[in-house]
Every structure is written in C-alpha cells, then in structure tokens.
Amino acid sequence: MTPSRPAPAFDPPPYPYDRLAGARARAEDRFASDGGVVDCSIGTPCDAPPDAVVEALCASGTERGYPTSPGSPAYREAAARWLGRRFGVALDPDDEVAACVGTKEFVATTAHWLHLRSPERDTVLCPAVAYPTYAMGATLAGLRAVPVPELAGRGPDLDRVPAAERRRALLVWVNSPANPGGGLTDLTAAADWGRRHGVPVFSDECYAEFTWDGPPRSVLEAGTEGVVAVHSLSKRSNLAGVRAGCYAGDRALVRYLVDVRRHAGLMVPGPVQAAAVVAFDDDAHVEAQRRRYAARLDLLATALTRAGLPADRPAGGFYLWLAVPDRWADGWALAEWLAAEVGLLVSPGELYGPAGAGHVRIAVVQPDDRLEVVAARLGTVGHGGGADGQD
Predict the structure, then answer these.
(1) Res 388 pLDDT > 50
(2) Average pLDDT, integer, range 236-265
(3) 41 in Cβ contact with 345 (< 8 Å)
(4) CB 157 within 8 A of CB 151
(5) 11-15 contacts: CB < 8 A, separation 24 or more?
(6) Given this model, what pLDDT does residue 383 score?
(7) pTM here?
(8) What is the pLDDT of residue 317?
(9) Which of 3, 67, 281, 285 has minimal Cβ neighbours within 10 Å of its Cβ?
(10) Domain 16-48+285-378 CATH (choose: 2.170.120.12, 3.40.50.720, 3.90.1150.10, 3.30.450.20)
(11) Is CATH 3.40.640.10 correct for 51-281?
C-alpha cells in the first residue's frame, strides 16, 4: 500500500499592509523634506480618548489578579447599557454579553471555536469585498471561506448563496457599516436568512457610531436568536491600543463562546476593563468624534474630487472607497501614484478581495492639519496623471 502523503505545511501569506512597504519607502524619499508621508492606509485612530478613561486605566488597582475572561460584571453591564441606549435593545449582561480582546482576535478565532461545536460544517460565508480577517479566520481554522457577491452598497446578497454552500455553512459574517466600502447591510434581512437556514449570523458593527445615513443599526434589533453582534472601543473611543470589545446576542452562542474562550485564556486586562466601563458609559466624546470624522471625510472627498478623483462620503464608516479612473490600471497603480506624487499612503482595494481591485481605500484618521497637507498637494497635481504621470 502506498503511504499517504502528509498535508502541506501552512505557509502564512504576507500580512496585507506589509505589501505597501515599497510605496511607503518611495513616498518617504520624495517627501522627507516636504512635510513627510501622510498615512491613510490603516484605520488607526489619532485622536485622544477621554481623560476620564485614561484615569480609570491608571487607577483601577486590578493589575495584580487575573481578570475574568467573560468580563467583569461592571464591564458587561456597561456594554449592555450602551447597547440599550444606542440600539434600543434589552440584553441580559450575565448571559447575552461578554468581553473580547478587541474584535480582531474574535473575528479571527470564532470560526475555529464554532467548528469544534459543529465539526460537520466547514464553510464560512463572508462578503466578497471585506476586511480580510473574516476569510483568514476560516483559513486559520482549516475551513473554507466562500465570498458572497454583494448588492451595491447594501452588503452580501445571501439569497445568491448556492444551496450546497448553505448546507455546509458554519456561520456568516456581515459588516455594517462596511469596511472598506461604507455600505449599510439590511441586518434584519440577514438575521431572517440565517434563521431560515440554521446558519448563525455574526455582525461586525465596530463602525456603527459613524453611521451617516440614518441612525446606527444593529442586528440585535431583529432579536437575538441565532445572531451575535460584535463591537469595539477601538474606533468608538479611540482605544485601539488597549484592545477592548464585546460580543452580544444569542444566549446559547454567547455561553458557548464564553466557555471555550475561558479555556483559551482570552482575557481583557483588568485595568482595560475598568477604563472600558467609563468609555461605554460616556456618549459625549463619541459625538465629538463623529463631528471630526464627518469634517475630515468632507475635506478629503472635496480635495480628491477637485483633483479629478471623484469621491463621495460613505453611508457609514471613516473610509473613502475610491473607484480607480480608467487612466490607472488598478488600485495598486493609483496607490503608487498617490504615494509618489502626493505623499499619501492608501490601501489598494485588492487587499479586501479580488472584487475590490478597481478601488483604493483611504482612511481619514490623520489629524486635520495632515489632511490639509494632502489637500494642498492634490491642488498642485491638476486632474491627476496616469501610470506615467501624464494626463
């Protein structure tokens, strides 16, 4: 009998944003003595969190002991209060809300945990143009990531999922407001689809506070059965560096994930939990941040449009999802041109899936004065150049 071949070893792909190193280096060379590079490639907040949050982080006295993995009662209650204020949903903080260490680790690991619970299912459904960690979470779990075609600006078209894929689906990820495109998914329709087909719906809502078309929305407004909403303080409260978020929804799913994550040792540090309570309970700083991002979106969209790169404010989020004009081959070519000619570092849309190749994503997370530098530079390049720098 011929011995079976061992499975090939996993070779991690390059980290998406590491692929921008060449464009960054060229921009740094060109603009080293002229204001430097303005990095809008990653959605890293630049503004300060509230002073009271930082004070709580420094003075909690919780450094010595181990924190609880599901989150302290105060943490879960504060998260539940915020979800109630923002979305009008009533949740039991003991059984329907729990902490996560930021949301990226939650997105990256949930498929693995759920596969342990349902080993007969091997497929993760996610939007065709999306934050890459939804698909990578499937890959890291040894599962299949199946992209779902999107309705224009309205999230994945779940009715187009073939029956064979639907039967194998372990979960479906939706993201609203969407990264990168800023579209708003019909979350009630997504919840209904999941319930009809017995597929848990996980809704990444970390940009919900920055919804521009109408009020913020959550999948929880359609009820908690079969759904889990995922939220983060990284964007809402400028706390990306402390890693604090929450997940909430279906009681059985939350309880299961709490139990397995506890065994994995996933814990939000105690001082961070204390700070998060203060952040969840304060809405004033979020309204101030909304005004900042709205102004920055308008500033950069106007400057880009005047330079011949039409840009519109998204329905939600703080990214401009810019279609590449015909004079550039794709998003990589436009990203290279913006780095070399404007000193602006952006993300080529292909980083968010092949269907995004004709776009670039621009995060308006730099201070106003840095975005004004970009606007001034755009004003000097006329209506843009092609790959060779010519009109």
Answers:
(1) no
(2) 97
(3) yes
(4) yes
(5) none
(6) 54
(7) 0.94
(8) 98
(9) 3
(10) 3.90.1150.10
(11) yes
